[in-house]
Amino acid sequence: MAWPRLSQRGPLLSRFSHHHVVVFLLTFFSYSLLHASRKTFSNVKVSISKQWTPSAENTSYELPEEIWSSNYLFPSAEEATLFLGTLDTIFLFSYAVGLFISGIVGDRLNLRWVLSFGMCSSAVVVFVFGTLTEWLRLYSTALYCCLWIANGLLQSTGWPCVVAVMGNWFGKAGRGVIFGLWSACASVGNILGACLASSVLQYGYEYAFLVTAAVQFAGGIIIFFGLLVSPEEIGLPGIEVEANPEEDSHRPLMSGADSEDEYEPNYSIQEGSTHQAAQAKAISFQQACCLPGVIPYSLAYACLKLVNYSFFFWLPFYLSNNFGWKEAEADKLSIWYDVGGIIGGTLQGFISDVLQKRSPVLALSLLLAIGSLVGYSHSPNDKSINVLLMTITGFFIGGPSNMISSAISADLGRQELVQGSSEALATVTGIVDGTGSIGAAVGQYLVSLIQDHLGWMWVFYFFILMPPGSRCYHNANRTSLVDPTSMSGSPASPDPCPTRER
Amino acid sequence: MASRGPGGLWSLLPWAVALLLAVEMALALPEICIQCPGSVQKLSEVARYCKQTPNLTLQARCCLNQKGTILGLDLQNCSLKDPGPNFTQADTAVIIDLQANPLQDDLANTFHGFTQLQTLVLPQESRCPGGIEAWYTVTYYKDTQTCQGQRNLCNSTRHPGTCPENGSCAPNGPGLLKCVCADGFHGYKCMRQSSFPLLMFFGILGSTTLSISALLWGTQRRKAKAA
Q: Which CDD domains match (chain A) (predicted)?
């Protein structure tokens, strides 16, 4: 354990061993790979819809059938595109349902097994979906739907597990900035998926699926052999139990709100280690829902993820549709929204670490999100101004969204009420992200509906409604219950970890 | 038969094989070669071509190579109003003789796919398929005419057509054009280029996975306690 001595650049860094670094990287890349395979699907859509349809070209030359028109899954590319959109929605819904389930499963079984199984099995499903059906020329809409539902369910094991593992290793102090940085994994996955897909697309779309599936499968194997789900696994002491001595006055209110017998109001940290074995029982779904903050933050996240995913799915389309920019260029420009989200998540996480409260940062960011949305909806047809406004919007929408889904989920899952046992973390993360994904799925449908009937401006009015909605739930949370996401100034626990120096 | 036992059945096998082979030989001759009675006229163009080129044999109305591919077809004096549905069997032919037949239909689509055809002998009243511009030389005789040497019309300005993405023009019989995959492209709609290096990809991925797994197991999980 001489490693931490090597990196004594700051109080934050010096507390981390090489185990922390490996855990950070493994969880980061395992979720990146899961997201990469989703991005691959959206990047090969054009090739797939060509593969599924006969050639519609009108020419005086003869087009031999076996080359140009032997596939009749859909009569035209438009209908194929419509079906691909349906697959997106199916995926989001099964992903949302899966999140609720896999969080619960993750807390009861070994997180490493669940994550590794999820990655490998979803890789196999992606392989069957994209590669095997093409090799066997087995084009069938029913089969595609079934496989994509299975993929959504299996992919959903990823997020709750990685957040739970991260929550086990990284304590509350500094969690904001670390999780902010870490939640870039989705965006990195998008870039990775886009690169993988575009580099092998010339061999045929089936190889884009083959490559992402194979890499994801390899990731699952590496996770199985390399991931330590918590410091306790190798005999290191766990991170400090998260207490809120500042807010002790709120305690009776909370204890009254949900009279759960299992919780000891007078629980003290010193008892923590002796209680750990007894408390390792996983929390039930209902108990997790009743934890303070879980439902309000879930609903707040649903509103935010709706806007966030709408940007993810529709921004390139909006740019090429509304401003007439080229599709490839619009694809590239839309990366700036992600960049804004990463910077926003990290910076806001850092500020919340310094303030030791996450709520004010979130509240202010959501207020400014309204302004940025109004600004972006009036963006002139100028690429640099649009990109700037897009980055700002990403900063104020993607930032808080990243923060809720990672740092705040971890705060909620490791709050004092759960008594330091990790067995609530995956369940809580699953609930927050699952609710968010339902919001996102409904949003995808509503955006296409509103855009079709009322135009893009109304889509933005709809978006603008979301941050206040999100704040509403967020405020409800702050006034009625203790906020588990605000932190104690000085940890009351005697630091048991020998590698840490404070 | 059953009373003979397995030994009896085995002894029958060579006979059965021989019979099957004989049937196959007879069937191997395409219908187009035998649907008109008689054989190739001794002095016809087809007969001359067949004798000039080594390894070709005359059978019924056809000139075949050793694999049984039709290279020449002599259907003169068969009272054909049209070449009939079996005619496409001869789309590998280099030389075809249709003289002295009361051909009625326009022949434009009859020779669809006859890309090898170099010499076509027709009755006087027929027109060369694809028109004069589809052939290098058209020679008129007393009762017949000969269309010789198919032109590739892909680069001709008289056919301003385009192929879909990654497609390119190719001849498809006299006066006919089709779109095939451009050089280097293959697969449905010619969307694919070269072949994926499967072995290399899985070799690199497999060895990388193995080494990272071993490294991480050694540094991370080796000391882990069983759950």
A: MFS_SLC37A3
